[in-house]
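Ticket #132: bound-state structure for protoporphyrin IX containing FE.
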Amino acid sequence: MFESKSGFFGKYAEEVSLNPNVGSWSWLLHRITGVILVIYLFMHLFALSSSTAGADKFNTWISSLQTPLTHILEIGLAAVVAFHLLNGLRITVADFFFMTKPHKTLFWVAMIIFLIFMIITAVVFLGRAFSH
Ligand code: HEM
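RESOLUTION: The complex was predicted; output attached.
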């Protein structure tokens, strides 16, 4: 007999385990990346607001962030943005152009573009990370 899972993460696990296919996983990843983007947006605004302390202080602080670790974290941020953007476009195309039937194919097309983008991003940012 099916037992309904409880708790915040239990509900998500249930949602995916009931229908473990591309549609469910992409929905979950879209939500996770969306929430990360909202958190990042606030961190970004907080970081930029420090410019009110003056150009010199801001430039010194921004320069201190140019470390190998931050360049590696930037690869993660690029992955989050790229996934959300490409999957968001896939959802929009499927919804507006009556393409819900081939939504799985659209997902893999989006993932091929994602992979190409990530390879280029990794080459550029790892180059920066190890040039310090
Ligand atoms: C880069 C361009 C973006 C595109 C093309 C895009 C596209 C979308 C689409 C189509 C949805 C609806 C998903 C659905 O109906 O299932 C969505 C949801 C969402 N987006 Fe974006 N988005 C973008 C940028 C952003 C940014 C910058 C943020 C945060 C600051 C964000 C946060 C969210 C959140 C929190 C959701 C709700 C997810 C959910 O309820 O599962 N998005 N996005």
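RESOLUTION NOTES: The two ends are 58 Å apart (CA to CA).
TICKET STATUS: resolved
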